[in-house]
# Entry
Amino acid sequence: MNSTNHQRRKMNTLFLMMVIVCVVVSTIYTQFNILDLVNNFDQFIYFLTHDFLPPAMLDKETWLEVSHSIVITIAMAILSTTVAGIFAFFVSLFGSEYISPFPKICKYIRGVATFLRNIPALVWAFILFSSLGIGTGVGVVALFMTSFAFMIRAFIETIDEVSQDCIESLAVVGATFWQRVFQGIVPTCISGFISWFLYCFEVNIRSSTIVGMVGGGGVGLVLFSYLKGFHYNIATTIILIIAIMVILVDILTGYLRRKLVSD
# Structure
């Protein structure tokens, strides 16, 4: 017992030392100086309180513009998540070794999905901006790419958790591939699929604002235009509206996911 505790303390000490070394090396490499932040903190507070605060009361024209952009942002998230979810469902069927009629391609599907998933939506927006220009098309496609890859992996893992007795029993009685899918996989995994879909929609609501700021349309583009025009108090109001939108979506999707789990 004492030797186990000693070994654990030794590992904890070693881990702490490694963290300290990494922090020191990172600080030196990035030339980060905490004193610069401390010395300029009063300027930051002045800029925040005099330019960003208080939030501006929006006039009718600006309010209509912001409201319209909020609706576009939500529509972008719904469209990209829904289309990505449909495509991801069918691709994931061929990516799961338990159900795929072509087991040899499963690892390639997983590999491609992992690669695409690790490219942020912001990077996709920059890539697409040069070919598609500014607009909601850039935002929808950028969100689609990350959502598609993410849900492929999530759906595959959900399918892999299904009891194989159900799938094998359907195969024994001569069920076709699609019969096994819609009579075995879908009824068992539907709550998991919807839960991942809602999570992805929640993420896309947040990501759509950032994507919009680089040309993807929606409220992010409107926010960026006011920041670029030095209308910081109006930008503060838009940021608060975005925060409220994200919080409401989080509450709604969280409630729906809890209902799915409880049912």
